[in-house]
Amino acid sequence: MAFGRRRSAGFAGYSDAALLLARLVVGGFLIWGVWDNIQSAARMAEFARFLAGHGFPQPKWMALISVWAQFACGVTFVLGFATRWAGLLCAVNFAVAVAMVDARLGIRAAFPATSLILFGLLFATLGAGRYAIDAMFSRR
Length: 140
Prior knowledge:
Layout: H1 2-9, H2 15-39, H3 41-53, H4 59-79, H5 83-100, H6 107-126, H7 133-139
Helix pairs in contact: 2-3, 2-4, 3-4, 4-5, 5-6
């Protein structure tokens, strides 16, 4: 039993690498997920119509805000810059998505957005880790 505890305690030394990997994957996913909306007015309009169909007020503005918030979160996660604030923004953005859209679709459909809420909360509470721009500023 003691051997198992010592061995698993050693994994804590990899927490900064795990945070980096999580930031890169989640950040990359967020950027990839909205890039078509940023590049194409037609895709942004399609997203606005989707939001209108789900009862969002000012769907054109909400589409712009959501897309650019996701893009900004993705970039900041990848860089590890302002990670805690980006984590909060990510959590709020996807909490709205779950409340307004995904909750009606069931747990399986809500899982991706719910996961992004949880990743956002993890980044907000844990920060970016050692391998990040945030860490360079905190050392000074």
